[in-house]
Design brief:
The chain is an alpha+beta fold and about 475 residues long. Helices cover about 45% and strands about 10% of the residues. The termini are far apart.
Length: about 475
């Protein structure tokens, strides 16, 4: 096939896009690239200088490999394969009367530099985070784990985007059946586009649906490496700065990468605080409704008199007060997250202080309700995983509604339902409440209470059969 015919075919396939650039080197050689994703400088300085004066087209591939050392060069046999490489920033070289094609990597730099994590900040520890560049993300893991057993398996998902999805694990630590389960789930995905890890989350979920997440979403490479070394599996998606870590259990969301960079006593205290905050944020509004509506005998006399005085001018029942202000705080939270950073803080101050004070002055709500909802919202802030936070928000509302008619009994019933639901979850055949249920001694050393490093020389045996860390047994 002649070069002109090939160029015409590609242009028609790409709809004669305005960013298609065609250059004819001589009667035999022609190259084509998309200037929106390719670097003109790389093409001029490396590719063009290597082929412009070359006459023997038979060994052009060898010539390019000998002269261009810092780019990926590949030979293709099908014209259809060129479309993916062109969209990925490659330049396609055509040779007259040859049925093969040569693609040379000439990607433009369209990525932001590695920066500090914004959603999971640390006081002490590495400051780098994932970006939208897949190669850089893999490099951040490679530079931390130099084990030859580190495996990076790659799939392409999305009929329109052909996005790279990388499955990362250590071959002799991660359970093979878990790796195969993830690969099977990914291979079954048939959608147009995968633009972020969020596109594949639901496909990786098992039949056991739950509001609580069964995988960790993070932009921290150090957390990914800690998890990989324990036997977990990390999934990276091209053009996404967030990784998925599987499997996740409940106590994973009370941990932080920083725990391992501080003294173990400080980390243990931090985890206990998070556990207390979890109970406060999910139970406090419902407990307030129960005590004020059904179980007033449990409140000390002086306190109940004070609360009754505060509520004497409020026209709404207690549960209505709480629901109104919980919804208002959720709206403020959403507005603060979506608003530009320059105005977000101002909106929070106006909403939380002025609106709350005005509501009390207008006798719409009592002051104690504002205290209850404020404490609930503050305790929620100690967690960073958005899926876990959203699960807390949903279950908080379920506790509130279960308390409206039955008081403390409703809290007990909702609590039992929550425990039963969590106990039934098994992401990748791992019990969600382990190491507490079922009890697992080796896993207890790295959960709510963090043991010192010299006591943690075994990996959790519910994640891997290779428990040995280093040379210790």
């Amino acid at each position: 096939m002649q070069n002109k015919e090939r160029i015409k075919t590609i242009k028609e396939k790409l709809g004669n896009s305005s960013d298609i650039v065609v250059r004819e080197v001589n009667e035999t050689l022609t190259y084509l690239y998309l200037e929106s994703v390719s670097s003109d400088d790389k093409i001029s300085n490396f590719l063009l200088k290597s082929i412009v004066s070359y006459k023997k087209v038979e060994d052009i591939l060898k010539l390019l490999q000998e002269n261009i050392f810092n780019s990926h060069i590949e030979k293709l046999d099908k014209l259809e394969d060129c479309y993916y490489y062109l969209a990925s920033g490659y330049t396609c070289l055509f040779i007259n009367n040859k049925n093969s094609y040569i693609v040379i990597e000439t990607k433009a730099d369209l990525n932001r530099s590695i920066a500090e994590s914004t959603s999971e900040p640390l006081i002490r520890g590495p400051k780098d985070s994932f970006t939208e560049n897949n190669a850089s993300n893999l490099g951040l893991i490679r530079k931390r784990i130099k084990d030859p057993n580190l495996r990076i398996d790659e799939l392409k998902i999305g009929t329109r985007t052909s996005s790279k999805v990388s499955i990362i694990y250590i071959n002799d630590i991660a359970e093979e059946k878990n790796v195969n389960t993830i690969k099977e789930a990914l291979n079954k995905i048939d959608i147009d586009a995968v633009l972020d890890t969020g596109y594949i989350r639901d496909y990786l979920e098992t039949k056991q649906k739950s509001l609580f997440p069964k995988m960790i979403s993070t932009e921290r490479p150090d957390l990914c490496c800690q998890s990989i070394l324990n036997g977990k599996i990390t999934i990276l998606v091209e053009n996404s700065p967030y990784a998925l870590i599987m499997p996740a259990i409940l106590t994973d969301f009370f941990k932080n990468p920083e725990d391992y960079y501080l003294k173990f006593t400080s980390s243990t205290f931090s985890r206990i605080i998070k556990f207390i905050a979890f109970l406060i944020t999910i139970l406090t509004p419902a407990l307030y409704i129960a005590l004020m509506t059904f179980n007033q005998e449990m409140i000390p006399d002086q306190l109940i008199i004070s609360l009754a005085t505060q509520r004497s001018q409020v026209p709404f029942p207690t549960f209505m007060e709480v629901i109104i202000f919980v919804i208002i705080f959720e709206i403020l939270r959403e507005a603060d997250m979506k608003a530009p950073s320059m105005s977000g803080a101002s909106m929070s101050i106006v909403g939380a202080l002025i609106l709350g004070d005005a509501a009390v002055a207008a006798n719409i709500v009592s002051p104690f309700v504002i205290i209850v909802v404020a404490i609930t919202s503050i305790c929620e802030l100690v967690f960073t995983d958005m899926d876990f936070i959203n699960a807390i928000r949903h279950w908080r509302l379920l506790f509130i509604f279960s308390t409206i008619f039955t008081g403390i009994v409703g809290i007990v019933v909702a609590g039992l339902i929550l425990i039963i639901k969590l106990a039934s979850l098994e992401p990748l055949n791992t019990p969600y409440l382990i190491p507490f249920s079922p009890f697992n001694l080796s896993g207890m050393k790295d959960n709510i209470i963090l043991f010192p490093p010299n006591k943690r020389f075994k990996r959790p045996n519910y994640l891997t059969k290779n428990e040995k860390r280093g040379n210790k047994i």
